[in-house]
Design goal:
heterodimer; A: mainly beta; globular; B: 11 strands; about 60% strand
Chain lengths: ~110, ~110
């Protein structure tokens, strides 16, 4: 069974640009959640989608948005990039039950210059 | 809000035992997870506790006390490959809140 796939693996952008990251969950998983990881803040929850609906959202500004498609694939978008958005963005998937372990992808390393 | 605390760094010798403590104060609780993350890699699942007590899985054990808001991860017979960051995370509904992680360095 293929794992969680995130693309691209690395991305370099400049301030003010926007970026879209993609995540394909494990086959059969309907929940996708996104996390931002930085050395100073650790892993911070961005949002979680289940069956194309956002079920939960973290404390990030509206520049961070996401969506989920009918095949459970998810994208997250960051508009008007800031230097502080440089981070590893991790996607995780589960079947959607609260006590399930999350399966993480390898992440997208975003650098904003 | 969520407040999850764990030590920043720990160092131990190969073959020894290390205990990583995690204390939490969260607005809800659906379970506590421990993840391992090697540098440059994705976090991988180690253990899950939802009821009080000890869960043992090979060289790794995890303990939970819900009344005290406390958990620990015990790593036995340390190996060099155990050098990694260990993340404590509390599940509340569909959201997982992570501690900052404990970097464990295993010395020969």
């Amino acid at each position: 069974k293929a794992g969680v796939t995130q693309t691209p693996r690395y991305l370099i952008k400049t301030r003010g640009q926007q970026v879209t990251l993609s995540c394909s969950p494990i086959s059969g998983h309907r929940s996708v959640s996104w996390y931002q990881q930085t050395p100073g803040q650790g892993l911070q929850f961005l949002f979680e989608y289940f069956s194309e609906t956002q079920r939960n959202k973290g404390n990030f500004p509206g520049r961070f948005s996401g969506r989920q498609f009918s095949n459970s694939r998810s994208e997250m978008n960051v508009s008007t990039l800031e230097l502080g958005d440089s981070a590893l963005y991790l996607c995780a998937s589960t079947q959607g039950i609260t006590n399930e372990k999350l399966f993480f992808g390898s992440g997208t390393q975003l650098s904003v210059l | 809000g969520q407040n999850i605390d764990q030590p920043t760094e720990m160092t131990a010798t190969e073959g020894a035992i290390v205990q990583i403590n995690c204390t939490y104060q969260t607005s809800g609780f659906n379970g506590l997870f421990w993840y391992q993350q090697h540098a440059g890699e994705a976090p991988t699942f180690l253990s899950y506790n939802v009821l009080d007590g000890l869960e043992e899985k090979g060289r790794f054990s995890s303990f939970l006390s819900r009344s005290k808001g406390y958990s620990y991860l015990l790593l036995k017979e340390l190996q060099m490959k155990d050098s990694a960051s260990y993340l404590c995370a509390v599940r509340n509904d569909y959201k997982l809140s992570f501690g900052a992680g404990t970097t464990v360095t295993v010395r020969a």
